[in-house]
């Protein structure tokens, strides 16, 4: 009888949970893709749809919003980049969510990926988490005043030996 009670409890827990639309590895991988590839990656899974395009400093910035109504609103911005003198593009991907738990999950995924947390602190509006490795600089914010959070993943210039 205890076995059946445990199974029922596990079933109830699993049915009440939900997932976020993107993982930490997805965000870092998006910085390695061209704008067209990133667009295809986001729309192919029917998880995100393009909300609008924006022209900024000669760059086409794409804004995506989550499609699912089962999770709180999530958005991703791609297309921002810095062009180095050798022609290499260092891309930035931004992710925003209306569920701070999504950011907590992404922080845990970054720690499991062995990224070094360079800073953890707080300002008037946000809890701030900054991660770093040879390839990426990542800033994660969880609002202390509103129910939201954000992540910004920026590629770094890699200097090989």
Automatic annotation (TrEMBL):
Tell me where the signal peptide lies. 1-21
- The entry's keywords: Signal
Can you tell which superkingdom this protein's organism belongs to?
Answer: Bacteria
Q: Does the keyword Signal apply?
A: yes
Q: What is this protein called?
A: DUF4252 domain-containing protein
Q: Look up and give the organism this protein is from.
A: Mucilaginibacter terrigena
């Amino acid at each position: 009888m205890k076995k059946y009670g445990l199974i029922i409890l596990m079933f109830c827990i699993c049915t009440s949970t939900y997932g976020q639309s993107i993982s930490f590895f997805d965000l870092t991988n998006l910085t390695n893709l061209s704008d067209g590839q990133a667009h295809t990656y986001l729309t192919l899974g029917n998880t995100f749809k393009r909300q609008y395009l924006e022209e900024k400093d000669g760059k086409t910035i794409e804004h995506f919003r989550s499609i699912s109504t089962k999770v709180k609103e999530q958005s991703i911005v791609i297309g921002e980049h810095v062009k180095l003198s050798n022609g290499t593009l260092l891309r930035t991907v931004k992710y925003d969510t209306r569920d701070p738990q999504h950011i907590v999950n992404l922080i845990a995924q970054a720690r499991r990926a062995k990224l070094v947390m360079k800073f953890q602190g707080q300002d008037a509006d946000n809890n701030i988490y900054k991660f770093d490795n040879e390839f990426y600089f990542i800033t994660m914010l969880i609002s202390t005043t509103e129910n939201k959070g954000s992540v910004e993943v920026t590629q770094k210039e890699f200097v090989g030996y």
